[in-house]
Amino acid sequence: MCGIFGCVNHLVETDRRQVIEILVNGLQRLEYRGYDSA
Question: Boundaries of each Glutamine amidotransferase type-2 domain copy (predicted)?
Answer without folding.
Answer: 2-38
